[in-house]
Amino acid sequence: MSIATSSEERFAQASQLQLTWWRFCRHRLAVISLAVVAFFYLVVIFADFLAIADPHAVDARRSFIPPQGFALFDSGAWSPHVSGLKGVRDPRTFKLTYTPDPARKLPVKFFVRGYSYNLFGVIPTDRHLFGIEGGQPVDGVFLLGTDQLGRDLFSRLIVATRISLSIGLAGVTLSLMLGILLGGISGLYGGAIDTLIQRLIEVVRSIPTIPLWMGLAAALPNTWSVTQVYFAITLIISLVSWTELARVVRGRFLALREEDFVIAAELAGASQMRIILRHMLPSFASHVIAAVSLALPVMIVSETSLSFLGLGLRPPAISWGILLQDAQNVQVLAGAPWLLCAAVPVIIVILAFNFLGDGLRDAADPYG
Amino acid sequence: MTVLEVERLSKSFPIKSGLLQRETGRVRAVQDVSFSIARGETLALVGESGCGKTTVARCILRALPPSSGAIRFSPQEGTTIDLAPLSRSALRPIRRHIQMIFQDPYASLNPRMMVGDIIAEPLLVAGVPLAKRQARVRELLELVGLPPAARTRFPHAFSGGQRQRIGIARALALDPTLVVADEPVSALDVSVQAQIINLLLDLQDRLGLSMLFVAHDLGVVRHVSDRVAVMYVGRIVEVAPTIALYARPRHPYTEALLAAVPKPDPMLRDAAAAPRGEVADPANPPPGCAFHPRCPHAVDRCRVELPELREVAPGNFSACHRAEELTLVGVA
């Protein structure tokens, strides 16, 4: 054998994971999507820190304030500020509309004190990334405007990200466990158990999802707390989505059982456990990851649509679906079109997850 | 002394169809196959695709359970075990004595394991301590002609021929009594085939290997095997020492296979002996001798009576009614 050059040597000693990563990096769109998804999960982790105003704080005086600009310079000098608002009553409709009052400049500061929360759920603090200190009750940084009850939409959107994205993760974890367990049993033992599980999957998949979810969600007692409803919804969503993962796992098991290298391990006298853990699981872990990244957006959309229809989470919980619920009314929308902005992160995240899943799937088998 | 004695081995597969998966027929992949392999001997099992040779190999390795028959295996002198009825767990301690070289060097190595770990796996499973394993892996790599640096690389860095060497090293790791090679060179380029054949010859000399060498043509077999068994539609039609079989085949099918071996000299090429028609369907074999629809020498008797495998010359068995009267053409 000829002496390998350093790049050949790098390739020769590259593990499966490295090869997959190199291949993934060649998929430009998937890498961008990975960054987008990572950004959204950072927002989830630091949601309260990034929020400007308390997402639950109601103030009738701030009702339907339109999105507000943000100036970085004041007559050439660095001084981020927002203009104060001046309420003007329309003489014909008697509707109060807010217009910027350039005379009042409110400086935007970083790491300001605001409402108190627990960072990562444990550290009590009241620091926020930015905001204004003091000012009249009506003053604030309303990047995306406010809703009917005067709650800051930007802060609500950020806090909603937490529930909407974590419900996907929790649901996928649950359906992954179900899927690997049932799919593994199905693929490994075959025979009557396999037939039974496969027919069960077919039955579950043949039930139309929206009526099923509606029925189950309607059955939730309305005395339940937000947390209880959250977990119940997670359970309902993953009840259907495990079937897809179970099929992937079963298919891989069936394919791998016939692979020469698995037979070789068996002929070497390896135990069933060793064959599964050492030879089979590593071979389909990447496929499962790809399947998961494609299952996540389905979960997120499911939660959003359930909440939008009023069947999922209910206020005071905040999720994208609940924010969009406010935008159901055409009259409200005509006056406050900015309420629709909750649809934007849904679209971005779903697209990013789909591209990411695509890239992962392509990269999953670097030998193919 | 015999290492392996296969007696009247049969394997059939059910044909299932319909919603309830009812059995509607059986494919008789292997029927009444008997042969033996002596210590240090290489027996070649030759036949066209679908003749059941791989099924025989897989039954001996017990990757498949045989339908009937005995597979008597002697791991050491004096002990003989019938592998045919053993359960999966009873087989595990015996596995180490019979190893396999696979046909496809790309599918038979786990792409997620380093070459050193692949070769060491049988040792690890057998409970050999780490230091001894590492020493043995180095020894095996040298034995099959690979550099010691190969240990830390992954299979994707190797060519087909090199991968086949890795597969051979893995098969030899535990000093098996019997090696079953399932078409070990048919997936390789011709030039690489020669290298692997030479390696196997070298290993036969140095290690005194007993080997069952499965092949689909008589081209490569000539150099490797001591004896050749020719299979057709699930049955052995001829068994003879290699030299005798090539010089004077005793079955028309062997003659046809020999005629199909590529010859380097174009003047010697002839298409006359190439068999007509297709291989018979093992689910529905023709009556009498299965080869009679393709045989240029077939007579009425061949169409009704199944010929038994019988000794027609010393050490030379044939399943042809006309073995004695025909003078068949071999290769020089």
CATH third-tier fold name of the domain at 2-40 and 47-89 and 231-318 in chain B:
Rossmann fold
* SS summary, helix count of chain A: 13
Q: Termini of chain A, distance in Å? A: 25 Å
Strand-pairing-aware structural class of chain B: alpha/beta
User: How much of the sequence of chain B is in beta strands?
Assistant: 15-25%
Number of strand elements of chain A: 5
Strand content of chain A: 5-15%
> Could you name the CATH homologous superfamily of the largest domain in chain A?
MetI-like
The ordered string of helix (H) and strand (E) elements of chain A is HHHHEEEEEHHHHHHHHH
CATH-defined superfamily of the domain at 2-40 and 47-89 and 231-318 in chain B: P-loop containing nucleotide triphosphate hydrolases
Using the coordinates above, name the CATH class of the domain at 2-40 and 47-89 and 231-318 in chain B. Alpha Beta
State the major sheet of chain B: 8 strands, mixed
Could you give the topology of this structure?
The complex is a heterodimer of chains A (368) and B (332).
Chain A: H1 6-12, H2 16-25, H3 28-45, H4 47-50, E1 71-74, E2 77-89, E3 96-107, E4 109-119, E5 123-131, H5 153-189, H6 191-206, H7 209-218, H8 226-257, H9 260-267, H10 272-308, H11 320-325, H12 330-335, H13 343-364
Antiparallel strand pairs in A: 1-2, 2-3, 4-5
Helix pairs in contact in A: 2-13, 3-5, 3-13, 5-6, 5-8, 5-10, 6-8, 7-8, 8-10, 9-10, 10-13
Chain B: E1 2-17, E2 22-38, E3 42-46, H1 53-60, E4 68-73, E5 81-82, H2 88-95, E6 98-101, H3 115-125, H4 130-143, H5 160-172, E7 178-182, H6 190-207, E8 210-215, H7 221-224, E9 227-232, E10 235-241, H8 242-247, H9 252-259, H10 300-304, E11 310-313, E12 316-318
Parallel strand pairs in B: 3-8, 3-9, 6-7, 7-8
Antiparallel strand pairs in B: 1-2, 1-4, 4-5, 9-10, 10-12, 11-12
Helix pairs in contact in B: 3-4, 3-5, 4-5, 5-6
